[in-house]
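Recall that a protein's primary structure is simply its ordered list of amino acids. Everything else, from secondary elements to tertiary packing, is in principle encoded there. The following example makes that idea concrete.
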Amino acid sequence: MTDTQTTICALASSIGKGGIGVVRVSGPLSQAIAKQMLGFVPKPRYAHYGSFFDQDKIEIDQGIALFFPGPNSFTGEDVLEFQGHGGISVMRSLLGSSIALGAHAAEPGEFSKRAFLNGKMDLVQVEAVADIIDASSEQASRSALRSLSGVFSKQVNKLTRSIIDLRIFVEATIDFSDEEIDFLQSDQVKEKTQAIRAEIEQILHSATQGAILREGLNVAIAGKPNAGKSSLLNALTQRSSAIVTDIAGTTRDVLRETIHINGMPLNIIDTAGLHDSDDVVEKEGIKRARDVIAKADVVLMMYDAQDKKPDFSLLPEDITYKHLLVVKNKIDLTGESVERAQVDGNVQLSICAKEVKGIDLLKQELSDIAGLDSSTEGVVLARKRHIIALEESLESINNALLQLDGGAIELMAEDLRHGGQAMASITGEFSSDDLLGEIFSSFCIGK
């Protein structure tokens, strides 16, 4: 757990040269550091322009200093910021002087972690800070901002409270089982449990949409050599991301590119052609291709229209694909038209990647597979752990309903307890140190 009695410092702006660089200090030594490096303690929440000095009173730079006394700051502690010229040497000197005066270099995410530990934000809001920074589309940024503003947290907290209240009611029934009134005979208990389930399902749908906006879909392009996989990658990215020749086996490694469809990140992965080979380099490329294909959310099984049908035996065995989409390419050579059809139980799209025909049809199919709503209004950006927690809570509520129907009220109370804990883990009300360490380790320094 973070030692909030120490003072930390870090570069809060991007690393490298820039017009402005920001060094942030948080902790009990903030005022003392300000007095040494500025000559005074700044008036709270006022911008002060002046010189910055090192521990030996040598001028480092000139810029703006800001001071936010705790608890009215981002971390809930005294926070000091130096905003100077964004040169590497200047930033290094400001950090070095702060450390010389008693501060410690912050760990990744330590500022946000202190904000969480000091009750300034819950875990969902803390994660939203990182998500706003990493957002790759306007829709993702808006959804992350909704999470940061507390929309998701309020929904989760309301549901957690409802589950706890219901559990208290059920446990009271167990404690007063000798009373003549059988509380559980009332339809009210079942109705409340069903209402909780419906709310969880609604939030889960919104969170799933948010997870798609945050993480996107991993789409692997598979097929024989010279099926047009690299041409398809170039058609989707609208640039020459992959080398395209008439020579089979041009792609020998995994190529990755990201595009956006209606704000959804789509991670396109071009793989080496699948075939038997004695070439050491090709064999390694094919091995990597099979690994990527096995882990992909969507596999585009691509084949040459002149081959009549795809060879599914090339795909890794014993893999249950989330989504397998057959792409019939080079229809310009067979005189066929762009179309979507059902063939042997699979969706098949007939396209010509080289002439960029049918690409819009493919993009729409991928969007439909993702299940992304045309409107993301109200969607909050969610992480995989949020989805898992919601699914665990939903499973517990479903089990509670089964126990209610069977009259096993003690087991129902236990299922409600598990459901409430899973829900509370989302905001961090119920969380382990291991979970916190995993979350904050993914943050950048200075946040």
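Residues 187-215 form the longest helix (29 residues). The two ends are 17 Å apart (CA to CA).
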